[in-house]
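Structure Section — protein described below
Tokens — whole-number codes for backbone shape
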Amino acid sequence: MEQIEQEVRFLLYSFFTGIFLLVSYDGLRIFRRIFPHGKCVTFWGDFFFWLIGGLVVFLMCYEVNDGIIRGFSLVGIGIGMLAYHFGPSELIVMGATYVPLKIKRFWLRKHRQKQ
């Protein structure tokens, strides 16, 4: 019974790690919507984000499952990511960027009028 509880706990950690990764990526998406930049910077930002994301997954597996990466943990991470992505992700990004983009557009309009 204890073995099953440990496996369920590991699956839940995996699920929430997937959610954590996409919540963090949404922070990057929010930043990019407010301060757009070129493809090269976007590429390197994504590269380093997912490099760190891989480290987060490894550390989760190391701490919770003695470093053993198991197929169902990757499935748990994927399900967590999908649940967040098709759930609140877009609403959070839109909501978090709405006011800053309004302020930015207002500020840009004001400065264009002065010129």
Remarks:
- The longest helix spans residues 71-114.
- The CA atoms of residues 22 and 85 lie 7 Å apart.
- The radius of gyration is 19 Å.
